[in-house]
Structures are given as structure tokens and as C-alpha cells.
Amino acid sequence: MIGIMSDSHDNIPAIRKAVETFNSMDVDLVIHAGDLISPFTANEFKNLEPEMVAVFGNNDGEREGLKKAYSEICLIEDFKEISVEGWKFSIIHGTNPQIVDALAKCGKYDVLIRGHTHELEIKGSETLIINPGEVCGYVSGKQTVVLVDPDDLNCEVINL
């Protein structure tokens, strides 16, 4: 199982709930689509049992501090390409809708993971686009993550 999250924005209780959720389920990989915000959040993500992949978000201003704090957890970059069980994933925070659209339409990826809007969205036919909403709950009032089955890309929304 793949856990997808985004926009945790320093909400430590919400991050803790997400980590506990992923640890309690059959999750092998967690993807964070940006806006971790502060280096101190790494203290919570160190409790994550699955492997973690993360990209920077537009509010991740202290990049060097984040890279250092997360160095034992994952390497944070602006964009990632990964393969999971034969599926090709692109991961970007998604501040530029034209880039998100181009990645979705280029035909190179099976799944596009994005964040930024704080709005839960799962759509697409050629390329599955997943925005897990927000872990922090600050904008929508909902704290959500998404589980993806790597066998068939079926998605399940989890309310934290």
C-alpha cells in the first residue's frame, strides 16, 4: 500500500495522526507532496515505519534546514519520479497549474501526485491525478490522506 499526504503545515497533532495511520496499515511507502514547512516536523516523521519520499512545497522556505533535518528520512527535492510495482509516478507540489497539466498529459506517467490546493481530488483516465487534500486541516477543515493499492491503483480516502 502507498500512503499519500500533502500540506502538513507544522500541524504536529495531525502529522502524528497521519504517521500512526500509515504505521497501523499495510503501507510500504509514504509520499508527501510538499509544505512540510519547518525542520522540527522531522521529529514526527522519524516515527514513520514505511519509507518516505517528499518534495518541497511553496511554503518550504527553510530548504537547507529541511534537507538537514530530513537527511535520515528522505531526500527532499522540487520534483520526483519514482516507479512502484511497474507504475511510473511523478510527484510535484503543484503551484503552477500549467506544469501539473503538462505532466498529466505528457503520457509518461501513470500517476501524478500533487498538493498545494488543500483540496482532495482523485481524477483522470490516462494519468491518475491524486491530490490528497491537506493533513493540517487549516483551509478545508478536513484532515485527509489517501491510500493507493499498487496492484490496481484503487484509492481510498482516510479522514484523520
Description:
The structure is a single chain. The chain is of the alpha/beta class and 160 residues long. The chain has a single domain (2-159), classed as Metallo-dependent phosphatases (Purple Acid Phosphatase, chain A, domain 2). It has helices spanning 12-24, 42-45, 63-69, 97-105, and strands at 2-5, 29-32, 51-55, 76-77, 79-84, 87-92, 111-113, 120-123, 128-132, 144-148, 155-159. Strands 4-3-2-1-10-11 form a six-stranded mixed β-sheet, with no helix packed on it. A five-stranded mixed β-sheet has the order 5-6-7-9-8, covered by helices on one side. The relative contact order is 0.21.
Features:
160 residues, Purple Acid Phosphatase, chain A, domain 2, six-stranded mixed β-sheet, five-stranded mixed β-sheet, 31% strand, Phosphodiesterase_MJ0936/Vps29, metal ion binding, EC 3.1.4.-, metal-binding, MetalloPDE_YfcE-like
The CATH architecture term is 4-Layer Sandwich
Strand content bin: 25-35%
Please report the number of helical segments.
4
Mean pLDDT: 97
Radius of gyration: 14 Å
Main sheet characteristics: 6 strands, mixed
Write the element-wise H/E pattern from the N-terminal end onward. Answer: EHEHEHEEEHEEEEE
